[in-house]
């Protein structure tokens, strides 16, 4: 699961960059054709503006939903860990001590 986080972050960052470039391109197209009064150009501009707005709205709602799901998942995992520690205090102390010994040995080797 830890290996997925950097990949997910990179994918999210790439998606943001791609969408930013797409948005810029469409906005440039809309601005460049703003003075053209031909009806087909005006119709294309209107459709591009409409699709851009729809895409932005859809992505914003999806991003909010994904954020909510991730937050809920993390909260659930924290609660499960907390319950485990309370239900198994000696096991938790043993695990903590073992991790401390391993970290101490690794630091001691330097």
Question: Could you characterize what this model shows?
Answer:
The chain is built from three helices and no strands. It is mostly helical. It holds the Pfam family DUF883.
Secondary-structure map:
Elements: H1 4-32, H2 39-87, H3 89-108
Radius of gyration over alpha carbons?
A: 26 Å
Main β-sheet description: none
Average pLDDT reading? 78
Strand content: under 5%
Q: Please report the distance between the alpha carbons of the first and last residues.
A: 29 Å
Order of helices and strands: HHH
Task: Count all strands and give the number.
Answer: 0
Keywords: Cell inner membrane, Cell membrane, Membrane, Transmembrane, Transmembrane helix
Transmembrane segments: 90-108
Membrane topology: Single-pass membrane protein
Subcellular location: Cell inner membrane
Features:
110 residues, single chain, elongated, mainly alpha
In brief, what are we looking at here?
The protein contains three helices and no strands. With 110 residues, the protein is mainly α. The chain has one domain.
């Amino acid at each position: 699961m830890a290996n997925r986080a950097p990949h997910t972050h990179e994918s999210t960052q790439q998606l943001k960059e791609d969408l930013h470039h797409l948005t810029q391109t469409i906005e440039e197209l809309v601005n460049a054709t703003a003075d053209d009064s031909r009806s087909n150009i005006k119709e294309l501009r209107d459709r591009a503006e409409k699709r851009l707005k729809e895409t932005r709205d859809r992505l914003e709602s999806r991003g909010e939903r994904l954020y909510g799901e991730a937050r809920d998942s993390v909260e659930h995992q924290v609660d499960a860990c907390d319950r485990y520690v309370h239900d198994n205090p000696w096991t938790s102390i043993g695990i903590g001590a073992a991790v401390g010994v391993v970290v101490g040995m690794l630091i001691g080797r330097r």
